[in-house]
Design goal:
517 residues; Nucleotidyltransferase, domain 5; 4 domains; 16 strands; globular; 18 helices; alpha+beta; GIY-YIG endonuclease
Length: 517
């Protein structure tokens, strides 16, 4: 098997990968955020692999895969396939410390927990799952949807989780046994991959609650729908093999990036920026932050484009960077010492010290070791101009999607302009195909794109809803707000019957809505 050629054919998307031996028997099943990236790790330097993987690789004769819509779906499919086929390297080499099951107790108000072993206690078990961290992370989101209890033994009075809205209060019978167990059954459906069915049920019950003017219940189902959709976008556990191997892989990517871009030191904090819009409408920008090669979502920021009306990604990039670094320089909280690396002419900042109050946005007070702009030479040029406005000379590159080429300003032949700024030539850098450094910048760029487009879709949806309703005479701001509060979205308003609409806005306006929408 030509490994390099086979790996190139694999998709860089979530899913499950399957290894077969020369006899066609399945010997290992795993999940991945990027199937191509994950599989390529098996065929790198064997010195960094664990004992199981070193024994597995020589037996791999064929690689198959199943794409999924999200990492969560991949996690669920992986567990189902392992249970069905019991592959040799999943079962015989299983470490009981790694495999986990979701346990649902046989009680009136079942408890949901993670366990390492199955015992004969009439409880229901879902699994096995390879990554405890991934399942634990998923359950944090699942609990927000289905509100199952946290406690092992139900207390005599409601606990803090009920007070902050994370539990339905079964200990005091604030939820009926039937309703609680309906939530548990739906949670089981989620782990069976039946998310579409759950979405339909939530949507139907939200409409019914709104029809009955039970707006609190309608809002609850609206929020559950929101969390159910959010689950499809979350990232779970990041550990591919053991934690040591995962760290080594990230370090390799960062070191490769340092050397290829001539950064002088390994980039600890990397910021990446992207723009999302349709013909200039609902334009937004995103800033994602990776620390030591891992995403730090607490530092992510979104920007609604305010000053650019025309269709110009370059102008939008300039606005986003200007706003980001204006916040940095205006904060009065950062004192910087310029340090010049004698081996290159690019200035960087070091010696950052924080003073004053802590009220300033913590992400905007940090100095990035590397800035990546999604785009080509044009985006790179305007990004440089934005930084020049504040006399900042940071490590700055752009990543073009077409050929995954990195552009950087080369100041080796730089000349001074009349206004005293350096003009450099563009340097094109191509990272080695299949390298950890290329995977790293691709992942960072893709994450910036995902974050931007998620915000763009949300903003565009709100604008569309507002504009469509505003076009109907007789619907003012209060009526529009009432309709959206009761039906949840424009699509639900469109699907609602004339009678349902009439209960909210009256017969005449309901007729207009049905005609216009």
């Amino acid at each position: 098997m030509d490994v390099k050629r086979e790996v190139k054919k694999l998709p860089a998307s979530p899913g499950v990968y399957i290894y077969r031996n020369s006899r066609g028997r399945i010997i290992y099943i795993g999940k991945a955020i990027s199937i191509r990236h994950r599989v390529s790790q098996y065929f790198q330097d064997a010195r960094g692999l664990d004992d199981k993987t070193r024994r597995l690789v020589p037996e791999i004769a064929k690689i198959e895969y199943i794409k999924t819509g999200s990492e969560v779906e991949a996690l669920i499919l992986e567990a189902e396939l392992i249970k069905r086929y019991k592959p040799k390297f999943n079962i015989q080499w299983k470490d009981d410390k790694n495999y986990v099951y979701i346990k649902i107790t046989a009680e009136d108000y079942p408890q949901v927990s993670l366990v390492r072993q199955i015992v004969d206690d009439k409880a229901r078990y879902i699994g096995p799952f390879v990554s405890a961290g991934a399942v634990r992370g998923l359950l944090r989101y699942v609990r927000r949807i289905f509100m199952f209890r946290h406690c092992e033994n139900m207390p005599q009075k409601v606990c803090l989780q009920y007070s902050i809205g994370n539990c339905t209060g079964p200990c005091q019978k604030y939820i009926t046994k039937a309703e609680y167990n309906k939530n548990i059954r739906r949670m089981i459906k989620l782990f069976q991959g039946k998310t579409k069915e759950i979405e339909r049920e939530f949507s139907r019950e939200m409409k019914q609650a709104a029809k009955n003017e039970d707006f609190e219940k309608a809002a609850m189902y609206r929020n559950r729908l929101m969390w159910l959709k959010k689950i499809k976008t979350i990232e779970l556990d990041k550990e591919d093999f053991d934690s040591g191997q995962a760290r080594m892989t990230r370090d390799k990517g960062l070191i490769g990036l340092r050397d290829a871009l001539d950064l002088g030191s390994v980039p600890k904090r990397i910021e990446c920026y992207d723009i999302s819009n349709i013909f200039g409408k609902a334009a937004v920008g995103s800033m994602v932050v990776f620390i030591d090669g891992l995403p730090d979502k607490a530092h992510y920021r979104r920007f609604e484009i305010k000053t650019v009306d025309k269709i110009s990604d370059t102008d939008m990039i300039k606005e986003v960077l200007s706003r980001r670094f204006r916040k940095f320089t205006d904060s009065g909280q950062a004192r910087m010492t310029k340090q010049r690396d004698s081996s290159r002419s690019l200035s960087v900042f070091g010696g950052l010290r924080m003073t004053g109050k802590d009220s300033v946005d913590k992400s905007f007070t940090q100095v990035p070791d590397l800035i990546i702009i999604d785009g080509g030479k044009g985006q790179l040029s305007v990004a440089e101009k934005a930084l020049n406005e504040y006399s900042l000379h940071l490590n700055l590159v752009s990543l073009a999607k077409r050929r995954e080429e990195i552009f950087k300003k080369d100041y080796g032949q730089a000349r001074m302009t009349r206004v005293g700024k350096q003009n450099g030539n563009f340097q094109k850098i191509t990272l080695p195909e299949g390298s950890e450094s290329l995977y790293l910048v691709q992942r960072i760029r893709d994450e910036a794109h995902r974050f931007a487009i998620t915000y763009h879709r949300s903003k565009r949806g709100k604008e569309m809803e507002a504009s469509n309703l505003d076009a109907i005479s007789g619907i003012g701001p209060k009526t529009k707000k009432k309709l959206l509060r009761n039906f949840g979205s424009l699509e639900n308003i469109r699907k609602a019957s004339k009678e349902d609409l009439a209960e909210i806005v009256g017969g005449k306006l309901a007729q207009k809505i049905k005609e216009k929408l």
